[in-house]
Structure prediction request, 661 residues.
Amino acid sequence: MTQEGESAARRSATTAQVPESQGTATPKQVRAATVAPKVNNSPIHGLWALTNRDLRKWYTNPYQLIISLIQPVIWMGLFGKALNFSSFITSSLGPNATPAEVNALMTQFFGTASYFSYLVCGMLIFVVVFTSAFSGMSVVWDRRFGFMNKALTTPVSRGTIVMGKILQSVARSLIQAVVVLAIGIALGMETDNFTLLGIAGTFAIIFLVAMGLSGLFVMLSLRSSDWQTQMAIINLLNLPLLFASNALFPTKIMPGWLQDVVKVNPVSYAIDGIRQMLIGAVGSYSLWMDFSVVFAFAAFFSIVGIVMSWRLLKK
Amino acid sequence: MMTSSSTALAGESSARSIIVVEKLTKTFGQQRAVDEVSFDVKEGEIFGFLGPNGAGKSTTINMLTTLIPITSGKAEVCGFDVGRHPNEVRRNVGVVPQDYTADEDMTGYQNILLCADLYGIPRSNSKTHANELLSLVELQDAKDRKVSTYSGGMRRRLELACGLINYPKLLFLDEPTLGLDVQTRAAVWKYIRTLKEQYGMTLFVTTHYLEEADSLCDRIAIIDHGHIIKTGTPQQLKDGVGGDVIVVGVSEGQPDISADIAKIGLVKDVKKTDNDYRIKTEKGEEASPLIMGLIQSKGLHVTRISLTRPTLDEAYLELTGRTLREEETNKWSMRSQRRTMRTARS
Prediction:
């Protein structure tokens, strides 16, 4: 076949039969129906759309929610119930120890008489840390599967994209914390000292810590397109965040060098504040200090995350 | 605000330039992906960027759609500089990327609405417009199904609809028919032509399919290794190749009249093999009767005659010294392209 013949055959093949669908408005009519509207140019336009997109993936998949709760529940159930510090103290004080003496000694160490309640407060932040750690993963997935590029070609501000990732992570943390708290109460957490203000303050702290941690992890994921690197980062940071803190044990019993790490870990301040507000525990820091540290942490990483997005968020 | 001016060369239309690119360069470390590329795209035309993988097509389109920053040079899209006013550029252009960017967990309709939200378009408008666009790309029956259930062709059509949601004057399409079946390719080409003819839209298409560039584009720039080799209409590029080839077969044992044929003005070259004269000419349609006339006047008997026009294949070969084939590029784009093709075939 000559080349002329070949290209003619190609041309006829490509004009072959695409079925004209019935009932389609012709383009001329289509065009007349709508015209370009006045658009919303505010710097945060699109924030709700982006946040909702990620949240929808989460709440339409109930298994994800359930699985994310398994870990704190196991910790509370096994660790919290198995570690009966009161019995250690009772046995060490001798058979004549009164409950008052036991409680006094417990309070001296833990700030409260109930280790389980002490632990539940730690678990609230536990679940926040784990949820926030995965906020960066959604950035990596979006980048990998092209949605990030699509968003970057729209006039949505880069900071809005980052804030959307942070906010969806914060929302998930808040909801999961509510569930963990409910389970903790069901398993025997002391509710005598609950006040409305205390509960509101607790969730304010959870909000701020979630914001700061999500900001941190999102910032670390901005240039990454490799989920394995993300997992490595998550595993690297999770352990110190949780264990170099007062989540499980009072810092008084830790060696000096570890106490120094605890002092710079915002998680410690968050948990300390929650314990004071929820179970009336004696805190290591003032409530004022706790809120300030957590607020500064949230503000710092949110702002840094947004600023870095201007430079780093591109294809 | 159009700050660009179009230089009207003799014979060029006086349409305004909607894209003006001068000495645009992009370097990644030591590597120059795009090297001092200059071209302009007139309003209302379909402009093609043709070249193999790794030529710099996607890098150029990414710079023009403000996805990556430019290293040096100037690029103005719809009158706005891509570096200084990226958001204005984004508001005025639509992008149909090479990858399939739709969110698989949402329905087609939801995806278009999400794109509209990202442009700040109020729902009161975008809901109607989304339905119109879904009609245009013939997806209205599938609009409430999750994208994960769509075939590759349907996804590509959805991407096209999403790219049009912000009423763009200029639409960028990056390898729009990569990996698609023949029917969907034809449909996509039909939509592209419709957009130009009935909406007056300008379209910038990158492709490595020669026949796509040939049949679809008003003008093509051939790009390779970051340089533009040549720009012109498909016909101009083909004319530039050396011309048409006329093969005339004569019966055996007749005298060689090559020298006489060569004397005809339009003829550039004559070769005789066995009983055939292979004649390279300009304007084959005009040269054929002259050649026929000459041969018959010499008393020779013509057994057959054929006229072949050069294809873009040959033009490409001549201009770049190579055939258009898949080249290895960086791992990222190869992986991404494989995923696109896999999804297209689903």
Residues 17-238+319-344 of chain B form a domain with the Rossmann fold fold (CATH 3.40.50.300). Chain B has two domains: 17-238+319-344, 242-309.
